[in-house]
Amino acid sequence: MKKSANFYFLVALIAIMSWVAITSLSFKRLEAQLLPLLTSVITILLAVGGMLVERLDRRKQLVDERENNTWTPEQSRRLAAIMGWVLVFFFAIFLLGFLAAIPLSTLLYLKMRGRPWRTAVTFAAMLTIGVYLVFELGLKSDLYQGLLFSVIDK
Amino acid sequence: MLEALVAGAVTLLQPVVLAGMFLGIIVGLVVGILPGVGPLVLYSLCLPYVYGMKPEVALGFMVALGSVVSTAGPVTAALLNVPGETSSAAAMQDSFPMTQRGEAGRAIGAAVFSSMVGGVFPVFIAMAMIPVMIPALLLFKSPEKCVMVLVGLSFLATLASRSVYKGLIAGMLGMLLAAVGFQDQTGTARFTFGTVFLHQGIPLTALALGMFGLTEILDMYVEGETNIAKSLTEEISGVLDGIKDVIRHWWLCVYSSIIGYIVGIIPGIGGSVASWVCYGHAKMTSRHPEEFGKGAIEGVIAPEAADNAKESGALLTTMAFGIPGSSSMAILLGAFVLLGVTPGPDMLTTKLPLAFTLLLGVAFANIVGGAICLIWAKQLCRIAFVHVDFLTPAIVVMIFVGAFVGTYSIISVLTAIAFGLLGYCMKRLEYPRAPLILGFILGGMFEYYLSISLKVKGPLFFLTPISLIMIAIIIALYGYSYLRTVRKKV
């Protein structure tokens, strides 16, 4: 029988929690061991219990399989696209800082969605100005400048 | 005492004090809407500016500011599923689903009005409790606090939606994440992977923003939705309906306010606990618990009332003992000292008029702040109908900036992304995300108080009168909930 996505999630969880439990034992003091050891062992027991529940309840398995089948290639493509954009945004912040990354990433997103240049540029500019006014000027938060500008400053 | 109350009220009505409070209300409302910027950040930013002001003006300004942050937070939570502050995450479990089905106005109306009631009602309890405050609070020591945290943890199972084991796994994961970082009691660095960033532990702001805000963005994009309100009835349901809901559930609102107030006066427990405990309690005692997490109005009312109620409790403890009830109260304590006002028992005797001014200030700020939010609610609700193409970059910017401002580290942004992805996997596999946040909030506290309690009183630390009363209440609540489920099935 085809295993459900939840089955693989529980297997991964058991593997991670086993590592957590073993690592916890390496902490020298009992006070430091207590919480991670307790939670990891309970999680392993719950995960094993969950696997048994899923295995015993055939009806539930069929429902899960049906639910898994609803995951389409189109959804995978969309997830990859949005995660790709989120990561590009993060690396833009890391390199260029918030105030340069916000307009660039917003522009990229709106063009990805097929919005006209005028709308995209206006919205990106408004968003950046809003962040600058509220966080830089209003709250005096020093937003991250980015690796590139930090090097240039030095 | 009556003379002190009148003197406190007269001070509050002085134009300069009122002006300071209005300024605090406006700043608090604007900042409360922004994710990640809670009262802690706000108090820290304002601290240098209050130096040299009259104590009643400066403290009135700061108290008003802190009080309304919790009133504005639910607006962002209901509309965008991005918690304005972490304690808004509990009510968001139901306020956002309400927005998705086109009831944003009702959700905001209920959240803001219950916040108002929760902010005002406990002020009068606080005033009445002043004579018995000090002896009562001294009864709460580490064992009692540990049992209180355990009571909070017992709600993990009730937050699970369909499958109890999934809810418990999420809760345990949250508790485990709370173990990450440098443990103060032993000086052990746990699961830090050699990074300095993780020494402080995982930032709660980044975790909450990723787990709820980013997850929702990923889901909306993958599902190809065009706006937040799934049911595209352009007609926004009335804010007034939300207010009527609160009046209809007045007992829940009052009860949650009392719980929130009690949690607020106990130092070291915090507002998020109050919200989650009241959410769990509302679900257990509801006639239709299966609707929780899908847009149950009680799930909005209870945590919001508790969240605001904790403010007057925490303020009273800060004033009476000089012990801050939360990290934001620690900054307020700094303001007290900076302004030459020494917190301690004197605040409840010789300086009682100032204590009354501040407590009445909390009530005043909640009424005015709540009224402003309610008036603007209809306009704010239109966000739910903005096309997702514009909302996505705007929300992601808010999440990233909010995560960064919480710690001033770029790694916080990466943390939010990681938890966004984990939250998305959990959502797809039907693991509830609320227990993870509750486990995270309570995990550290549980470990701390358990360790002290075991050292001081041994393994039977819970055999104290107050602890036993709390245990009895929780057993009675579970028993009642179980009996009702059995009766329903019969």
Please describe the topology of this protein:
The complex is a heterodimer of chains A (154) and B (490).
Chain A: H1 5-25, H2 30-56, H3 58-69, H4 73-96, H5 98-112, H6 117-138, H7 147-153
Chain B: H1 2-12, H2 15-33, H3 39-50, H4 55-80, H5 89-100, H6 104-137, H7 142-153, H8 156-159, H9 164-178, E1 181-183, E2 188-190, H10 204-223, H11 239-248, H12 250-265, H13 271-285, H14 298-321, H15 327-338, H16 352-381, H17 388-407, H18 411-428, H19 434-457, H20 465-489
Antiparallel strand pairs in B: 1-2
Short key terms for the protein model shown above:
heterodimer, A: 154 residues, mainly alpha, 2 domains, 83% helix, B: 490 residues, two-stranded antiparallel sheet, 20 helices, 2 strands, 1% strand, globular
Which sequence of SSEs, written as H and E, runs from N to C of chain B?
HHHHHHHHHEEHHHHHHHHHHH
Strand percent estimate of chain B: under 5%
The overall pLDDT of chain A, averaged over residues, is 86
Greatest interface:
A-B, 56 and 55 residues
Biggest β-sheet: strands ordered side by side in the sheet of chain B = 1-2
Which whole number gives the mean pLDDT of chain B? 80
Could you characterize what this model shows?
The complex is a heterodimer of chains A (154) and B (490). With 154 residues, chain A is mainly α. Chain A has two domains: 5-69; 73-153, no CATH class. Chain A is built from seven helices and no strands. Chain A has helices at 5-25, 30-56, 58-69, 73-96, 98-112, 117-138, 147-153. In chain A, helix 4 packs antiparallel against helix 5. Chain A is flat. Chain A starts with a helix and ends with a helix. The mean pLDDT of chain A is 86. Chain B is an all-alpha fold. Chain B is built from 20 helices and two strands. The model of chain B is unreliable at 231-235 (pLDDT under 50). In chain B, strands 1-2 form a two-stranded antiparallel ribbon. Chain B has one domain. Chains A and B meet through helix 1, helix 2, helix 4, helix 5 and helix 6 of A and helix 9, helix 10, helix 17, helix 18 and helix 19 of B.
